[in-house]
Amino acid sequence: MSTRSDLLASAEILLRTKGYAAFSYADLAEEIGIKKASIHHHFPTKEGLAIAIVESYLFRFKNQLESIDDTHPLIIDRLNAFALMFAHSSESALLPLCGALAAELSALPESLKEMTRDFFEIHLNWLHANIVRGQKAGELKTELDNVKVARLILNTLEGGSFVSWALNDNYQHFSGIDFILDGLRTTGTQH
After folding, report:
1. Are 12 and 53 spatial neighbours (Cβ–Cβ below 8 Å)?
2. Could you give the domains of the chain?
3. Segment 37-91, tens digit of pLDDT
4. Distances (CA, A) of 62 to 31, 34, 55, 190
């Protein structure tokens, strides 16, 4: 990998474990084993570095969502696969990037505040679109408010990440997403 890629990967981990305000170029230099001046060569500002992290992450995240849509014809399977992304982050001792940023929203530069809001909108739009598809296909209960359901799922996954982070426990076991998904299924699709 290139120095720039190494910097982005390590900085993402620091952002998702320490937070934006708490990590520094000194932390990153120590992590990578290069001088701070080399980091400044690639990313003159911390804000620029964070923007590059979010852009890189969003690219991967959107590809993951497309892959979920392509490989899972059933909506419940899509929602489970979406939830697994949060479980994998937790297993790697990482907070979800959007959640880590949101936790520090007041300390972020305006550009990152906007990107964080956009990031949450991407989550919610994908969830909403799939819930609507599931309702139209008869997989999910049609009487449920699809906007509120999308928000409930995201709230549960993001919030569960923070609770598991604090308690250092098994996120997937305690997230509660299985209860939500069971409650969404139409009677004929329960298992």
Report:
1. yes
2. 56-189 (1.10.357.10)
3. 999 999 999 999 999 999 999 999 999 999 999 999 999 999 999 999 998 888 8
4. 28, 31, 11, 29
